[in-house]
């Protein structure tokens, strides 16, 4: 690992197990410094309270980061029933307290189906979405509340994994959802449906696209290796950029078709998957880039190049 102007070229993906208390950007900067990387970016923010899978793309891998941003995510969350906060999580100011003693497993199982499938979700004020260039969380901190347009999201699965009743009941949920889903809002909406209010007490992202807990490495481990100058071990955690696209269906094409795609031209191919993004591979299985299956059953190039 050579330093040059305090930075070096690093290519690949590191799956960080983000610790609590850090913003995603702060975690990114720590990791970027550990690797002396010239270029890096994360692929989907986690709240400071949240932990878990945060893929960080270095160098050439940043070309494929958008496909991780667009990927589905899985979360394990503990929801505190009976208390609402201004942020929707335990970091916020308590707004209201109600007894959750009447809530039982039957009541929970009766309301959960309302929040599965395609649903409309209004983003929270405490979010990084912008209004006239200003993040909503800055407006919220200034005491302002603005209208937010509901977004269509998909909750593929929403399962109860644990429950402890009481005045402040605790509900553990596992959620698999599309990009842009706010788990805090899911928790708040469930609490409202149960009539007691709720907020997220803990939140862990267990999967982001093709990456899971099994791929993740802690910041403590990385910093310890850096302190020991164990540079080869640090680099051994870097995954090939093509792993970022492992959740996309593969389409193998003849060399002639790959050539036309590399020139920006769509090609007609038989036996294609449903319309959407696909991984393009040559006849030998080598990765060539990302295409999109169009409604007319052609494949159009979207980002070509080795990963």
Fold and architecture overview:
With 307 residues, the chain is of the alpha+beta class. The protein has three domains: 95 residues, Pseudouridine synthase; 133 residues, Pseudouridine synthase, CATH 3.30.2350; 57 residues, PUA domain (Archaeosine Trna-guanine Transglycosylase, Chain: A, domain 4, Roll). The chain contains eight helices and 19 strands. Strands 1, 2, 3, 4, 7, 10, 11, 12, 13 and 14 form a ten-stranded mixed sheet that branches. It has a five-stranded mixed sheet with strand order 15-17-18-19-16. Helix 1 runs parallel beside helix 6. The longest helix has 12 residues. It is globular, with a radius of gyration of 22 Å.
Search tags:
ten-stranded mixed β-sheet, Archaeosine Trna-guanine Transglycosylase, Chain: A, domain 4, globular, 307 residues, alpha+beta, Pseudouridine synthase
Ordered list of secondary-structure elements with their pairings:
Layout: E1 12-18, H1 24-35, E2 40-42, E3 51-58, H2 65-69, E4 73-81, E5 83-85, E6 94-97, H3 105-111, E7 117-121, E8 130-131, E9 134-135, H4 136-141, E10 151-164, E11 170-177, H5 183-194, E12 198-208, E13 211-212, E14 217-218, H6 219-227, H7 231-236, E15 250-252, H8 255-262, E16 267-268, E17 276-281, E18 287-293, E19 298-304
Parallel strand pairs: 1-14, 3-12, 15-17
Antiparallel strand pairs: 1-3, 2-3, 4-11, 4-12, 5-6, 7-10, 8-9, 10-11, 12-13, 16-19, 17-18, 18-19
Helix pairs in contact: 1-6
């Amino acid at each position: 690992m050579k330093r040059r102007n305090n930075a070096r070229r690093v290519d690949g993906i590191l799956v960080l197990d983000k610790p609590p208390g850090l913003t995603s950007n702060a975690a990114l900067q720590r990791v970027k410094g550990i690797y002396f990387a010239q270029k890096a970016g994360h692929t989907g923010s986690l709240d400071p309270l949240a932990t878990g899978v945060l893929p960080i793309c270095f160098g050439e891998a940043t070309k494929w980061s958008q496909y991780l941003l667009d990927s589905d995510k899985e979360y394990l969350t503990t929801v505190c029933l009976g208390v609402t906060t201004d942020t929707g999580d335990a970091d916020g100011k308590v707004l209201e307290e109600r007894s959750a003693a009447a809530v039982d497993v039957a009541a929970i199982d009766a309301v959960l189906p309302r929040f599965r499938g395609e649903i409309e979700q209004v983003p929270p004020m405490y979010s990084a979405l912008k209004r006239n260039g200003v993040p909503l969380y800055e407006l919220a901190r200034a005491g302002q509340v603005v209208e937010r347009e509901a977004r269509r999201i998909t909750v593929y699965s929403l399962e109860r994994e644990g429950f402890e009743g009481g005045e402040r009941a605790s509900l553990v949920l596992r959620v698999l959802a599309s990009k842009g889903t706010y788990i805090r809002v899911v928790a708040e909406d469930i609490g409202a449906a149960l009539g007691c209010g709720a907020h997220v007490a803990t939140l862990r992202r267990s999967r982001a696209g093709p990456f899971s807990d099994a791929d993740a490495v802690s910041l403590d481990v990385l910093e310890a290796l850096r302190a020991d100058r164990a540079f080869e071990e640090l680099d051994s955690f870097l995954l090939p950029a093509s792993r970022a696209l492992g959740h996309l269906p593969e389409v193998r094409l003849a060399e002639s078709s790959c050539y036309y795609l590399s020139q920006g031209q769509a090609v007609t191919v038989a036996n294609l998957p449903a319309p959407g993004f696909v991984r393009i591979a040559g006849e030998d299985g080598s990765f060539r880039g990302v295409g999109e299956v169009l409604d007319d059953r052609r494949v159009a190039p979207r980002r070509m190049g080795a990963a």
